[in-house]
Amino acid sequence: xxxxxxxxxxxxxxxxxxxxxxxxxxxxxxxxxxxxxxxxxxxxxxxxxxxxxxxxxxxxxxxxxxxxxxxxxxxxxxxxxxxxxxxxxxxxxxxxxxxxxxxxxxxxxxxxxxxxxxxxxxxxxxxxxxxxxxxxxxxxxxxxxxxxxxxxxxxxxxxxxxxxxxxxxxxxxxxxxxxxxxxxxxxxxxxxxxxxxxxxxxxxxxxxxxxxxxxxxxxxxxxxxxxxxxxxxxxxxxxxxxxxxxxxxxxxxxxxxxxxxxxxxxxxxxxxxxxxxxxxxxxxxxxxxxxxxxxxxxxxxxxxxxxxxxxxxxxxxxxxxxxxxxxxxxxxxxxxxxxxxxxxxxxxxxxxxxxxxxxxxxxxxxxxxxxxxxxxxxxxxxxxxxxxxxxxxxxxxxxxxxxxxxxxxxxxxxxxxxxxxxxxxxxxxxxxxxxxxxxxxxxx
Length: 444
What we know:
This protein has 444 residues and is of the alpha/beta class.
């Protein structure tokens, strides 16, 4: 079986992003753009990935790890960037895909199509037909769909400019031919740069076959600014929404539902408007997520109903048939089967046992300003409204805590705990007070 590798160009500074970090690290659907590219290459069965980075980009190197990196010290064009990978590659690659870290929407199906086309040609270029071809380079193909040349717009005549098939810059090249071809390109051009596209003309001179695979325009959106990043996010979200719906989820207002790249929804999940899924969310079957809820790094079991306005923070694990109501925040907590946290509560660093009921306004006081502490609430326990549980504390199975209590000591199974102050009623006080205030008002 032939080995496939990829070189991902990511050394650009991205000055139009107006950012202190490399542009390829800006997130798309909750994941850095460059990692979208790498993931899609791997899904297309690429075994080896080398990322070309610029000097002093340690964060980028860490982000693409464990994949290898090569440094392009001087930014002298795309051909020069690819050549930087030569000394770090294994040398046994039959196919080498060349992609861009700022073009994150190319699908694994398109990369796979390029690898298949490489079986019939030594150089394969990914083309597309934009609505407005503008200043893109044009791909000149013959009657047999063999690529004859790449002509830059400024060098094209009127007939060539009328061609709608444009160059994306993405290529797949015979691994035995790529670096010998790159060694021959020159920087004899106005910009003084080494252009990757020049290898097509050199390959044709050598009698090698060159081909074209066509991709969709949306796939080939390059992200060079915040505006283009927002456009790419829109496309990515539309793909994720479509995937969710065709796999059995109902989105009542798809346009207001925001997914992350790894969101997993089971069957018969209903998502109401304005729900945000951060990274790491896994939803079971028959779940209802009501409007304006926010979830991240959370596991939700089957039959759960949550929201509206619920917030599930990292480390939340809702077991089957749990109810989480409006304005409830849960963090790093396990809520076991059938338990209810229905209103205006905060549960953090805790376990809530099976069938327990958490009353409105309950909070776990889990932080003392220095350390976090755990609260354990047993199965069947009932926590009255407006209760503060001062961790570390344990509430036993089937225990009750009276409303308005502040609990700082363990409560044994089956016990009732109260810290409520005694109530005092003052007979007739309210009537006397109102009469006094009315007299003062009338005397003015």
